[in-house]
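Explain this one:

_____
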Amino acid sequence: MNKLKLLLNFILFYFLIVGCENFSTKTYTPQQIKKASQWSDKDQMPTFDTCSSLEIKEQFDCFKDEIANSIYNSLSYEDLISNQEIDEEIILNMIIDEEGNIALDNVENGSVVYDAIPSLSEMINSTISSLPKALPATKTNVGIYVKSKIKLPIRITASP
């Protein structure tokens, strides 16, 4: 009986020693994490379902065109009134979250345009918030959806 206990204890001790290798953790440096997190050509940019059948490089252009067309169509139905002549480019900075929701983060160079057409800000916000859900950006080396930011230049021209 003592030999059986000794044998069982030896086997248990052996598996504990050998099994510890399976519990080892690997430590990554901040540089390794930063390198793995950087955007690469293999990663998938955000897109819409309607653009997903295109080549990967064309999908993002289609995505931006869909947003620009939605804004253009929305503004073309409105009777916008400008209090001065403008020919300005504004840059819409948008965030696409991990679930595909699109939101306007901020607008660059918008002060002149917004002063001339006060209702424009609300219309752009409304149009962007009514966009359909996107297929979010995917970090392909780890296979997860990620939040992304895009810049979309829009030229605004108006006369009083």
Summary: Helices lie at 2-19, 30-37, 56-76, 111-116, 120-129. The beta strands are 86-96, 102-108, 137-139, 144-146, 148-158. The chain has one domain: 39-158.
